[in-house]
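hiii so um. not sure if this is the right channel but i have a protein structure encoded as tokens and i wanna go backwards to a sequence. like what aa goes where. can anyone help
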């Protein structure tokens, strides 16, 4: 008669082992979540490029101030600017003014206000540009402000940024007349709550996408990071980014 196998009791996992497994699982989940969050944050910093989506703050709206447009807005350049910012004026002279001409009809070039607090006439100039936009003349005022930057933005001695609002207002009225605006309407719009709200909304949008200074550019929602301070290098790098987007 065959001998039966002895009954060997099955032992379950000890409480210590269970606790250890739980800790390991939780750690794996936490680490995985951190990695996923970091990747997501990196995509967000790139303007949503990883997901193929452009943040709302960088999309073209029906009332966007545009310098050039293209059907379907397939390639969009957004600049957050300050009209009294010396760097913005330099970029205008050496980079963006030429890009506007050279890429006309091939990109949609949008500008948004981001007046810097340390620039005394940045807010007044932004209100002037937005008041011109109310009469369909934003582009003309944008060019006039930058083309005459030395007159209104710089002090009379040429040594520093001007803070003389009365002197600037005289120039602004002259510019409004030169580009064919109704002067009374221009002045009313310039001082209106609606224009100030528009500027504030632009600034809030910039802060939402991480803008801290001017000029700041985005191409199809992806932030442009020049690797040089030389305007000729910046121009070349920005054009390369636009060409690649096309």
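sure thing!! here u go:
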């Amino acid at each position: 008669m065959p001998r039966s196998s002895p009954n060997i009791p099955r032992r379950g996992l000890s409480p210590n082992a269970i606790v250890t497994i739980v800790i390991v699982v939780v750690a794996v989940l936490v680490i995985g979540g951190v990695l996923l969050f970091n990747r997501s944050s990196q995509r967000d910093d790139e303007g949503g490029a990883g997901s193929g989506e452009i943040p709302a703050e960088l999309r073209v709206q029906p009332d966007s101030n545009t310098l050039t447009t293209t059907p379907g807005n397939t390639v969009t350049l957004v600049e957050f600017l300050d009209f009294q910012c010396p760097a913005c004026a330099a970029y205008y002279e050496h980079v963006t003014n030429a890009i506007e001409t050279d890429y006309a009809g091939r990109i949609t070039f949008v500008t948004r206000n981001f007046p810097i607090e340390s620039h005394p006439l940045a807010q007044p100039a932004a209100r002037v540009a937005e008041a011109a936009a109310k009469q369909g003349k934003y582009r003309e005022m944008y060019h006039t402000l930058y083309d005459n930057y030395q007159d209104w933005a710089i002090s009379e001695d040429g040594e520093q940024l001007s803070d003389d609002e009365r002197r600037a207002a005289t120039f602004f009225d002259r510019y409004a007349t030169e580009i064919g605006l109704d002067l009374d309407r221009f002045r009313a719009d310039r001082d209106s709550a609606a224009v100030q709200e528009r500027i504030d909304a632009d600034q809030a949008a910039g802060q939402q996408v991480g803008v801290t200074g001017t000029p700041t550019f985005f191409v199809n929602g992806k932030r442009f990071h020049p690797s040089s301070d030389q305007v000729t290098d910046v121009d070349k790098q920005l054009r390369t980014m636009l060409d690649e987007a096309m």
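oh and Confidence is low (pLDDT under 50) at residues 1-52.
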